[in-house]
Amino acid sequence: MMVMFSKKKSAQKKPVTQKKSRIIASNKKRPALKTSVKAKISKPKKKPTHAKGVSEKKKVKRKTQMVVAEKKIEKKKEPERTFVPPPKKTEEEPKEFKAIRASIHKLLKKDFLPISIIDGIVERVAQDKKIEAKLKSIVQKALEEYTKNCIDPTEACGMISAQSIGEPGTQMTMRTFHYAGVAEINVTLGLPRLIEIVDARSTPSTPMMNIYLRDEYRINSDLAKEIANKIEITKLTDVADIEMDLVNITIAIKPNKKTMEKKGIVINDLLERVQSVRKLSAKIEKDTIKVMLDEPGYKVLQNTNEMLKNLKIKGIDGIKRVIIRKEPNEGYVIYSEGSNLKEVLDIEGVDPYRTTTNDIHAIARELGIEAARNTIIQEAYSTLSEQGLNVDMRHIMLVADVMTADGTVRAIGRHGVSGEKSSVLSRAAFEITVNHLLLASQRGESDKLNGVAENIIVGQPVNLGTGAIELVMNPKKRKQKEK
Amino acid sequence: MAGRSITKKIGALEFSVLSPNEIRKMSATKVITADTYDDDGFPITMGLMDQRLSVIEPGLRCKTCGLKVGKDKCPGHFGHIDLAMPVIHVGFVKTIRNCLRATCRKCGRILLSDKELEEHQKIILKNASEGRDNAYIFKIIISSATKTEGCPRCHAISGKIDLDKPTSFRENGKKLTPTEIREWLEKIPDEDLPLLDINIQSARPEWMVLTVLPVPPVTVRPSVTLESGERSEDDLTHKLVDVIRINQRLQENRDAGAPQLIVEDLWELLQYHVTTYLDNQTSGIPPARHRSGRPLKTLAQRLKGKEGRFRSNLSGKRVNFSARTVISPDPNLSINEIGVPVEIARELTIPVRVTTQNLEWCKKLIKQTAQPEKPGEDYRPYVNYVKRYREGVEQRMKVTEKNAGDIAEKLELGFTIERQLMDGDIALFNRQPSLHRMSMMAHRIKVMPNRSFRFNLSVCPPYNADFDGDEMNLHLLQGEEAKAEAEILMKVQENLMSPRFGGVIIGGLHDHISGCFLLTYKDKKFSKEKTSEMLATFKYKGKFPEVHTLNGESVVYGRDIFSVLLPKDLNIEYKSKACYHCEVCQAPDCPHGAYVIVKNGKLKQGIIDENSIGSFKGKIVERIIRDHGTAAGRIFIDDVTRLGIAVVTVIGFTTSIDDEDIPTEAKRQIEEGLQKAQNKINTLVLAYERGELESLPGRSLEETLEMEIMRVTGRARDMAGEIASKYLGLNNSAVIMAKSGARGSMLNLSQMSGCVGQQAVRGERISRGYKYRTLPHFKKGDLGASAKGFVANSYKSGLNPTEYFFHSMGGREGLVDTAVRTSRSGYMQRRLVNALEDLKVESDGTVRHTGGEIIQFQYGDDGVDPTRSTTGKAVDIDRIIYDVSHGG
User: Most buried of the four, A161, B86, B415, B487, by CB within 10 Å?
Assistant: First the structure.
């Protein structure tokens, strides 16, 4: 027979240990480096792969929130963010489900099946009692199928994901505005939105929030409206007419009773807000507020007039418009144009566990990198499926994981993932060629030729797929054996 | 492959800055003359074309290494120019600026205390060991050192360093000459350099001020001899001529003791020429131009951008053994095959090593070359070349009609013959843009007459090809490993399932679907003769389908004919495309025949359409591939497409303009409906003008009106479509195509026969054009339907001029959209690919970067290959349960 020899890849074991130590290290060191940035714990990436994972995730979420609350006390001495316990699982899993689940685990012994498959089996078996007797063969078949469907080692999964997301891009619309979910709010969709997600822009072009409410707030329409009023930004012009009196160099603010009532503002609130502005004094005369300038002057009057028009009376910065809708099985939900996750979460009555925004960076700041990863997946997946394009979740997950792998949200492109590659040639081949080469020479970098682009450049087999196998026939040995 | 040993592998590439000493050491000659050739056309010694810098004419020998250009390849040798005065390297100005700002002009140390330096050093080392980016630390060091006023060591006061782009420096407003800068940089001690992001092993800051300039070998900048005998020099040579000339003048002037002003002017000119020699697009200075006015392509331009060395020669390379021609369809080919024109087959070759097993066959092949086939005879492959290795040197002989006999006689074991293509050879077939891996698949070659590539229509979707003049590329595989890999991984039948969503992407289309629809729709019956005719098209050899006797005639049911193709163990139930999505689904007893049931390989009921055999959706195709492998899948697709075409041929299937005819009654109804819509719009407009319109929450009145009108026009079109389709039944070919998913949609049909509907630009009614109106045909401020782009006519009844104009506006938007989209999505994909190309699933199931960094602990959180998943699901549980409960 042929005699083969294979170069054992000694390098393979090594990176594991390195990576582990890095993760442990990252927890402590990160805040030390950038103290000014919120002490956000960049959680080591841990993928929930079995039943435990779900509850674990919840815990992580709660922890991060407490950390945020603590930090606040130190910094601003604002009232502590009221800690809302996570909603209890309203439906405990029925007993029969548990029983089936237990018997499946028994059947599996040491073998592994993803939780989604087990869940699927449990659900269906519980529906149809007749097939419970055949549970064993079901589990066996599922296991067989699962092992068959597993991905091959050395597969170039990144390239496949990139192609799978990029290829349907040509079929997407460029139409920027469309109405998604709520008819009244414009949202960027299609290719521009996908590019925005991949670019990891610091703010989306159309920020939007889905604000879910808690307990009685979501049932009682008045309470919901109250919250909406607290959130939506109200400017002075929205509730009052502003008139300039050029003769006396004063400004008269005449509140509009109807809108004031609607927004739940009284005239004293207005006065308070106006008085907080510097270099003017104000008082109430009948139903109007009279504003007098400390330093009267025509130009100053005009400037003040403009400023007063845009004076914020109430609400949260960045939230331009809110819409309250009653959703089936949910009650009142607030949708908002504009986003400010940090402050919305602080509002009493807002359910911080379900409220979302499409601003990925805000999520990374407030809820941590894991949440940001989930948002990227969620946003990218919904933009693609909204266009009627079917792309496997795993491809999008991989992109999201690459973007968030180092604990920060990085863009796909020269300022992010591609610009931080270790290989000089790969960076030079992508963009800004000359600068990368010059910098590399100054730093004395060396290119280890591990990646794809580098090996193509020097004309060697790539270390992926069939190219990763280093199995070579040795003709000499064969001859010896024949002799 | 004996004879070929394991090739050496490059371990790593290191980058560093050349020191003046290194440049002199590697130089073959100093270059002092600005001229290239003397009057006899001979290269001048110590000129730019010195023969020691390698040669370009074939036959001449390089004076340094004695090798020729052609075969043994002289790699070329550098020369150098000694610059009379130092000059700043443009690429490094930023580094130079940082060094000047951060160091003391007297002692050269960084303007920070030892303690601070130590702290920074620690962080840098720590970050480096953890593989983190250090860039921000360097920024901190430089900015804090710049702010320091006096040196903590020698207490010298540092001045403010300004950089006048691109290359001149000022200290407190006084110009610093490159000589001064160089002296300053020399003072910076080695131990401080790592804190300025300079590696002492690879660079010294003073090397960034050039005192000697390397001259690239002649092979890098070959001159071209034009037909007129004139010599045309490369852009780099031109630039180097300039540099040498000014350098000479500068030296002469300086040595002659010319006034300071003249020397400085020349010095600056030298700086300009060296700058443009390195990068001719430096901002702040005019680019150097050719005599014709074209900007010169200098060093940076050669590397940069899409047409630069990196992207166009290193990341992508030109290849041999490839062909390109127009494509055309051939339904008689299998999906695995490709028809290659004889002309191409004769030109391209595949190497075959002569062994004891194939010696005779090879000889026969060579001898064939001497006897060209007569017209009408089948194609025979010849041999183009015979190669042999003698003492390590390759000898290549062209086989011609004359010498074929001789060569065949002399053929020995170990020779290699380069034979022409023959049926069954494997080749890669590709269409650009190659957006996914299915854009390049392996096919088996079939040599055919005529001059286009031909392939089965079912393979169009993965390539995204059509036959309106598309061209495609063919690549031949030259090695055994490559052929084996292509066979196992790249053949069309191995790529039936898409890795994008885990479904089929190759299946029947157009006529194949129409055919199967007709075959299975409403208990279609065929005579025995017709049945045989159809079965013969795919050379069916099995049992004849069941024959029934109806009214004394023996007939065969269409579904039984279709069942012939199905494997005997196929059990599947699903909803077909014909499904109406009724409120209450009657599943197994669907009145529309939309519920397909296959039992033990027999089609019991239901219509076979796009959801059964179509690309992207075909459920039956998918199941066959999953259960019986890719070969069975290929056979099924081959046969089902042929059957579909046979049915269409037997029954007859055509569509024409009268398919869109609707009765006068329908026309009247549509007109009525449109009138109603018109009235509704008018009332809306009236309400708006009177200010009675209630605005939607968060919308202005105008927006509300627009939205309301858009809704009304949309409904009007749907109404027209509904009325039209009520009168267009399934006896209409156009409807059959739309309903079965073969081509077109009901929307297309309703636009042709009912009403085209509202035209939109940017998602709104058309509102641009003249002041307050779209066209002069309308009154100013007209907000009615027809004034804002509503097309009430159908395509068949014809559009009136204003409608036609609005329709063109909508059409134009679509075209612009496509053009913009392709470039934007192309760039996005390039970025995605660049970011993700290095990811790999390791043997332990983790996904890692080739550098070792872990991205995912388990691929996709469950380790399932999307290609093998059932539209995303790891395991098709429903199917398992169906199988188990139905006695599996």
Answer: A161
Residues in chain A, how many? 483
Predicted confidence (pLDDT) per residue in A144-174, tens digit: 888 888 899 999 999 999 999 998 888 887 6
Give the DSSP letter of residue B287.
P
* Residues of chain B neighbouring A11 (CB-CB closer than 8 A): 852
Q: If you average pLDDT over residues B26-55, what whole number do you get?
A: 83
Q: How far apart are CA A9 and CA A35, in angstroms?
A: 41
The closest alpha carbon to B562, from B639, B456, B650, B651, belongs to: B639
Determine, for residues B697 and A184 on separate chains, whether the beta-carbon distance falls below 8 Å: yes
Q: How far is B348 from chain A (nearest CA, A)?
A: 23
| Percent above pLDDT 70 for chain B | 98
**Do the beta carbons of residue B109 and residue B273 sit within 8 Å?**
no
User: Distance between CA atoms of B596 and B245, rounded to whole angstroms?
Assistant: 85
Rounded to a whole number, what is the distance in Å from the CA of A50 to chain B's nearest CA? 10
Rounded Cα–Cα distance for residues A22 and A405 (Å): 12
Rg (CA), chain B: 38
Mutate to test the interface with A, among B201, B204, B833, B870 (most CBs of A within 10 A): B833
Q: Name chain A contacts of B710, Cβ cutoff 8 Å.
A: none
Nearest CA in chain B to A115: B862
Q: Does domain A426-472 have CATH number 3.40.50.960?
A: no
pLDDT 10s digits, A432-447: 888 899 999 998 888 8
CB contacts < 8 A (A, B): 374
- Which of A114, A141, A191 is opposite residue B880, by nearest beta carbon? A141
Q: What domains appear along chain B, each with residue ranges and CATH number? A: 90-208 (no CATH), 234-318 (no CATH), 322-495 (2.40.40.20), 511-651 (1.10.274.100), 657-803 (1.10.132.30), 839-885 (no CATH)
- What are the sequence ranges of the domains in chain A? 95-149, 157-206+358-404, 208-231+319-356, 234-314, 426-472
Which chain B residues are Cβ-neighbours of A429 within 8 angstroms?
310-311, 314-315
> Measured in whole angstroms, how far is the alpha carbon of residue A271 from the centre of its chain?
40
| Chain B residues touching A420 at Cβ < 8 A | 133
Task: Give A97→chain B minimum CA distance, Å.
Answer: 17
The pLDDT score that the predictor gives to residue A310 is: 79
How is domain A157-206+358-404 classified at the CATH fold level?
A: PTS-regulatory domain, PRD (1.10.1790)
ipTM for this model: 0.89
Set of chain B residues whose Cβ sits within 8 Å of the Cβ of A458: 10, 13
Residue with tokens 């660079």: B203
pLDDT 10s digits, B274-331? 999 999 888 888 888 888 888 989 999 998 888 888 888 888 889 999 999 999 999 9
**CB–CB of B435 and A163 under 8 A?**
yes
Distance CA B127, CA B116 (A): 17
Contact residues on chain B for A144, CB-CB shorter than 8 A: none
**Would you place residue A176 in the very low, low, confident or very high pLDDT band (cuts 50, 70, 90)?**
low
